[in-house]
Amino acid sequence: MSSVPAEFNPANVAAQAAPDAAMYHQELSFKDPMKSVLEANPEIYFVPPKRSSEWGQWEFKPGSYYDTTIGSKHDHWKDQDLPVATKDIERLRSDMLSWGYCKIDSALSADQVAVIRQRVLEQAEGERLAGIAQKTPSGQNINCCVNKGQCFEGLIEHDPLSVQGGPLVEQLVTEALGENWICTSLIASISLQGGVPQALHQDQDLALDSRSPLTINILTPITDIDELNGGTLVIPGSHRVLSDAVREQRPVGKLPPAINIDAKAGTMIITDGRLLHSTGINHTDSPRIVMLNGMQHPLIRQQENWMLSVKPEVLNRASPKLLQRMGYQATNAAQTNEGHGFGASGLVDEAAGSIVDFRLATDRGEYLRVGELGPDSTAEELNAAYTLRDVVGKARAGGGPAPVGIGGAKLNP
Ligand SMILES: [Fe+2]
Asked: Which domains does the chain possess?
């Protein structure tokens, strides 16, 4: 009987695994800039209380990051040229580069806002009545909105019927993330009176030394937001301060104070994934609604598990663009299904990369996966109605690029 070599013994491996012996130890230990942010900025950052019952009684700490106001009223910021709501693409680009966020004025018309507001408020009520409301320290979130009203489908794909400024928003996101970006999730964030502010954080939690964002978040206020009702807290410019520090492997140092973003309902605020931000405090008795629609580089795992969660009827009516944005368009490097998608680039409606039919077959209880096969397999096994066979056949008939690899080369359609 052969014995396993001693070098593979878990105890022996662990004995060799001291942190400073690890490859890339120095680089990776600088990847989380928050430790030095905490050390250098104790007065603006601390973890907020966990229980909202404590909030407002003794936990509010004057001078902390959430004890602030909008930029134009803030002593530190009022003379700075912070982002303004505009439709001017040059200004939007420069705000994004300089401050880590920009505000697209009237990206949603008043009518488009009204549709979403009504649907969000009704859904929030319905989920409370059903006993499945997703409570957050700040109030209530509605997750996986794509299943909860057709207006949300339009929001994800920036359909001009739902987002009049869609083309301009998409241009800016493409400039930030590159082509074929996908959606990580669409959440309605409702901040309620008595809610606890969120801790300042970066949404992008990898490659924090990157020179351009790998994730962005599109925040769409559905109610006007300001310092009174929990306008999103941000530290303008922190996207660059933090990524520069990580890249140069030095402490972040002193940060400027946070502000509340102020914006009219229907503004779309694009935030760089490296920007320090959090949900603010709603001091009013009206719900503050912001749609959180994160977008990201297509190789990053998504927040919402769209593969499992999206309702069949939504998938059946989804446009190729919506499917691509939810990740149903495989690329050579991500989300191939039994190999289908190798060779695909992830373009919208590229038949070679479309994987939605696997999910729909699953819903019908008909997904037949290729399993163990060999020279002794029976004719029945070899000729089974593998779903892969159907999908590859459909892709070839669709006239797209010929599927390659497992999906194309190894099967007889
Ligand atoms: Fe966030």
From this structure: 71-296 (2.60.120.620), 306-409 (no CATH)
Q: How far is CA 74 from CA 78, 82, 261, in A?
A: 5, 11, 12
How many angstroms separate the CA atoms of 13 and 2, rounded? 20
State in Å: Cα 5 to ligand 1 middle: 47
Look up the pTM and report it: 0.92
One-letter amino acid of 204: Q
* Cβ-proximal residues to 243 (8 Å cutoff; 6+ apart), any chain: 208, 209, 210, 211, 274
Report residues near ion ligand 1: CB below 5 Å. 203
Q: How far is the CA of 256 from the centre of ligand 1 (A)?
A: 19
For 304-351, write each residue's pLDDT tens digit: 999 999 999 999 999 999 999 999 999 888 999 999 999 888 888 788
Give whole-number Cα distances, 179 to 90, 171, 295, 322, in Å.
20, 10, 12, 15
Q: Rounded CA gap, 186 and 162, in Å?
A: 14
CA of 297 to the centre of ligand 1 (A): 16
CA of 269 to the centre of ligand 1 (A): 13
CB 275 within 8 A of CB 97: no
The CA angle 176-258-84, to the nearest 5 degrees, is 50
State the distance from the centre of ligand 1 to the C-alpha of 54, rounded, in angstroms.
Answer: 23
